[in-house]
Design goal:
CATH class of one domain: Alpha Beta
Strand order of the largest sheet: 2-1-4-10-11
Helix content: 25-40%
Distance between the termini: 75 Å
Order of helices and strands: HHHEEEEHEEEHHHEEHHEHHEHH
Structural class: alpha/beta
CATH architecture of one domain: 3-Layer(aba) Sandwich
Largest sheet: 5 strands, parallel
Number of strands: 11
Length: 343
Amino acid sequence: MIQIIKKYYPLGIAFVFSFLWLIGCSSDLSKLLYNQGFLQDDYRYGDLYRLSNLPQFRIPVEKCSNPALSKIKNSNLILLGDSFTEEGRIGAEHFITEGYKRYFVAADTNFTRLDTSKTNVLIIETVERHVRERFAKPFRNLKIVNSPQSTHLAKEKKGGEVDILKDLQEFEIPYKTERHESALFSSDFALSIKEAKAWFNWKFFDRTDSMVVVTKDGQNILYGVDVKNGVNSCFDEVSDDEIDKIVENLNDTYNHYRKLGFDEVYLTICPNKTSIVAPNIGKYNRIIERIQLHQNLKMPFFDVFSPFSSSKTLLYDKGDTHWNCAGKQVWIDKVNESLKKIL
């Protein structure tokens, strides 16, 4: 038996590492294993819990129902968004438009086509912490591509046409360490071990993961980037001149995409969780209000800061940076109400 173990031990080790490598490379395999119950979603308790593993924030991310909506024909919505509106949180089923496309707002370049026979609406959604970076200059990350018969279709060297929408997508290495880490350490048993260590460090040494901050009363967990010094912080000073420049770039962005064929272009700035639940832990720069209330702003926007800051209930998941079902619905309702007026 010992000889057999010695003989096949290296093969077993190689198989395990190869399987983990395959999981890291294949999102399809990861999804299959997840759907079959072999893997668990390590974001199921929220991204902040995932970083901190503090047991008081181990509350499942809320699952939202999607009420049926009547669609308006000949309407198309294009959403440039970040993680607040990513697939799994927001989808075509949430909007009254007949057509819907969503692109990642932080991508260097996105390509889309406009059907000018329809009413086309563009929404640019960004979380508060990235406003200063994304609008330090006019936003141009969405390119409009003409019809398939246009000169924007390239020819392969061997013949045949290549759709620029596919051909110009950014190359991405498929391997993700998060996938195999999830396979090894995302079970409730593994999380319980992590929790014991995290709770001990927090309780006795006031130490947590460097990416999170727990409020002094222990009731809220915040994303460290929002709190600590830097351009992404809620408490980093923003001059009036910088606000003026951001507004100028927003107006330029608005005019640019209207000229390219969009019937309307909207802005959404999703508040950082810190800005809503703990704005008094520092001198809050109030960047959302200063942009939205600026006298020169021409770009229409969906204001969620006001209802979020006045809400008596938490509109974010307990262990997550993102909104819960109630918070998400606030934004969806504002979007659809505005769409009804222009479609």
